[in-house]
Amino acid sequence: MSEAPSTVPVCYRHPSRETYVRCTRCGRSICPDCMTEAAVGHQCPECVSEGKRSQRPARTAFGGSRVGQAAYATRALIGVNVAVIVLSALVGGTQAIAGSGGWFGLLGSGTPLTQWGEVLGYASYVPGGEVHGIAAGEWWRLFTAMFLHYGVLHLLLNMVLLWQLGRYLEAHLGPIRFTALYLLAGLGGNVAAYVFTAQNQPAAGASTAVFGLVAAAIIVNRRLKLDITTLVPLLVVNLIFTFSIRNISVAGHLGGLVVGAVVAVILAYAPAPRRTLYQAVGCAAVFILLLAAAVVRTQAILA
After folding, report:
1. Which pLDDT band holds residue 2 (cuts at 50, 70, 90)?
2. What is the pLDDT of residues 219-236, one digit of tens each?
């Protein structure tokens, strides 16, 4: 006589394992290796995966992704700045690192890379030589200058502040909004240096963007009703530094500060309904205004 088939339920993924536990979503039998504890009962791996796909990602108070807490954008920006100065040293020699510039000789010298990418209005490198600069069609300088530095000390001062402020702001804004803030502040500072300084005066450095981050941190904290007593002295010290040290681009620092503040207001105070749209349109408007200012300056130089 043949035995009656077993009626004990088995795991749908492991048919050799008997179980009396069922997935609370799909009702399939699951063994201990396949079950994931849920708010009510247990779920199978497929239902757990489907639930994760259907969940909306967590957002910050300003609509940014929580991925910003890992500071990936801040790390990437620091990495780009470090890579650029290494490249500058490779093409310009060891004096590009330190020992040939201002600040008691601690700054580095210019290199072919800094010449190529620094803010320069309209001038030649040597008397009677070819004219270079933004007004000569070298528009990339408005962007590349924020990643160039005259030596390790120049780089270190900016990267310390970028690391401290960048991680904080990226955690609140998310990586995309934070990167937009950084780039627009840097661009704003470079445009200001182009517009308000002599056309043969070069300028470079991440300080244009970093000044924007200082202003943004103050505005974000005000929006969140958090303390700003440690940020205001930081801003004051950097402003004193800007106005008291020779050969610093005052226009670049102040331009980055103002544009960073404007972008931060757009990101922090955009109304919750359709927040992302307002933020994108506001940032795009700032970008267009900066380009318009650069075009007007170019026309004035070439007139």
Report:
1. very low
2. 999 999 988 998 999 999
Cα angle value 145/106/75 (rounded, 5°): 45
11 and 113, same structural domain?
Answer: no
Residues 134 and 201 in one domain: yes
Residue 75 in tokens: 């790390």
| Domain at 172, CATH number | 1.20.1540.10
**Distance between the two ends of the chain, CA-based, in angstroms?**
107
Token pair, residue 179, equals: 């990167």
- Whole-number pLDDT of residue 4: 47
What are the strands, taking DSSP E only, across 13-81?
36-37, 42-43
> Which one-letter DSSP state was computed for residue 6?
P
* Greatest C-alpha distance within the chain: 110
* Three-state DSSP class for residue 3: coil
Spatial contact of 107 and 100, defined as CB atoms under 8 Å apart = yes
Q: Does residue 9 sit in the same domain as residue 92?
A: no
d(CA 62, CA 217): 13
* 21 and 135 fall within a common domain: no
Structure-token pair, residue 248: 């610093």
61 inside domain: no
Do the bridges between strand 36-37 and strand 123-124 make them parallel or antiparallel, or are there none, so unpaired? Answer: unpaired
- Dist. CA 278–CA 162, nearest whole Å: 26
Question: Which of 149, 167, 212 is CA-nearest to residue 75?
Answer: 167
**Domain check: are 138 and 170 in the same one?**
yes
Q: What is the pLDDT of residues 93-117, one digit of tens each?
A: 777 776 566 555 567 777 899 999 9
Helices (H), 197-229: 207-223
pTM: 0.80
Q: State the Cα angle at 178 between 56 and 113, rounded to 5°.
A: 140
pLDDT tens for residues 8-59? 788 889 988 888 888 888 888 899 889 888 877 889 888 888 877 655 556 7
Alpha carbon distance 268, 172 (integer Å): 10
**Mean pLDDT to the nearest integer, 167-189:** 96
